[in-house]
Amino acid sequence: MIYDFNRITDGHNTNSIKTDLAVARGKPADVLPLWVADMDFPTAPAILEALHNRIDHGIFGYSVPDEKFYEAVKKWQKNEHNFEVERSHIVTTPGVVFAIACAIKAFTKEGEAVIIQTPVYYPFKNMIIANNRKLVTSSLFEKNGKWQIDFEDFEKKITENNVKLFILCSPHNPVGRVWTREELTKLSEICLRHKVIVFSDEIHNDFVFEPNVHTVFSTISKEAALNSIVSTSASKTFNLAGLQFSINFIQNLELKRKFHDERDKTGYDEPSLMGFSATQAAYEHGKEWLLALKLHLKENLDFLRNFLVQKLPKVRLIEPEGTYLLWLDFSAYGFSDEELDSLIVNKAKLWLDRGTMFGEEGKNYQRINIATPKPVLEEALKRLSTALSQK
Ligand SMILES: Cc1ncc(COP(=O)(O)O)c(C=O)c1O
Predict the structure, then answer these.
(1) Is the shortest distance between the CB of 233 and ligand 1 below 6 Å?
(2) Which of 75, 233, 262, 350 could be a cystine partner for 102, CB 3.0 to 4.6 Å?
(3) Taking the domains of the chain in order of start, what are their residue ranges?
(4) Residues 92, 98, 104, 109: what is their CA dihedral angle, to the nearest 10 degrees?
(5) Which of 97, 126, 217, 268 for a ligand 1 pocket mutation test, highest count of atoms within 8 Å of Cβ?
């Protein structure tokens, strides 16, 4: 089947935060939005069909997934990530950020420390602070175009602050790293040594550029499996974020009970019917669409890289190992953070995510989402080039 990822689907007036909130968030009305991680493509036809069938039935009462759903999840994890899942390890939530909040409450007390590796997806920090826990950060650092972990600093911060929980982003948003088994093993060993539970956010697990391979955190070792929660969703892979559904894998029954208790205290009970129906259809029938999507993303990545080399050699692309969110370094221009952001928003009329939203390490960076039709990406790069040519 041919999928057309270059067809433009107008997102305006669809209640989309990506397209409809520019003015409300202080941007010019005509910005081109390539910020949040929503993609600009309709989801896979097989998912649409499953949702249409639900709609045609017309009854949207409280519902729970059945055995077919669990089989689809197990098969996807096995085939895509070489991860053996048992049904009894699965806990559903309305989103990965929701699961992070549950984990913070389940595994730490108020005032206790939670560590993250900045720059990182900003809700990690927000959830720690909103739940009155102590925020501890260990900075990633960039060397030869690749962002890396400072293991010594990571361990030092853990011991100095008596950290109880680590929220890992794997693959990493925004630096685009797909952590190697070796790196994850080192992180796991440090956490085990200091009794730090690991919450591994693997929502970007299906977007990995070859030859990189995503390693599920709990496949590192039996000890890692019993000391962690792995959280994922079909929402990034198949563009379903608005359906509010995610999946957690928890092998340690004690951790599972605590997590489940916190989830129950929120009043959440039955999951979103559309969320789990779409997820099941995605995992049963979405592979072919995903392969085609990944080819498109690769083409967009190649296009952007070539464009920068030819027209904007001072903008440095951090070569992504995974995700469709690219990390662009503008430091060669010598702008202040404010100047850079103002140029992007007001001159180039682009809505990207400014690097410092992810942590101070993101100074001089902007994150661009390339999950869009190529003509849109072309237009974005043209706007950027025109704005920067005056500099
Ligand atoms: C690393 C990461 N985690 C979580 C999310 C959001 O997940 P959810 O919508 O399931 O809360 C995102 C969305 O961009 C993300 O990049």
Answers:
(1) yes
(2) 262
(3) 17-44+287-389, 60-284
(4) -110
(5) 97
**pLDDT confidence bin for 390, thresholds 50/70/90:** confident
Per residue in 167-220, pLDDT tens? 999 999 999 999 999 999 999 999 999 999 999 999 999 999 999 999 999 999
Which residue from 391, 389, 381, 341 is spatially nearest to 365, judged by alpha carbons?
341
Strand-pairing partners, residue 247, are 92, 232
Asked if residue 167 has its Cβ within 6 Å of ligand 1, the reply is: no
Token pair, residue 5, equals 């990822």
DSSP code per residue over 92-157:
EES-HHHHHHHHHHHH--TT-EEEEEES--THHHHHHHHTT-EEEEEE-EEETTEEE--HHHHHHH
- CA 137 centroid distance within chain: 19
Q: Coil, strand, or helix at residue 184?
A: helix
Please check whether residue 116 is in contact with residue 135, taking contact to mean a CB–CB distance below 8 angstroms: yes
- pLDDT tens string 237-246: 999 999 999 9
Atom of ligand 1 nearest to the CA of 124: 3
CATH of domain 17-44+287-389: 3.90.1150.10
Does ligand 1 have an atom closer than 6 angstroms to the CB of 118? no
Residue 235 Cβ < 6 Å to ligand 1: yes
| Nearest ligand 1 atom to alpha carbon 36 | 14
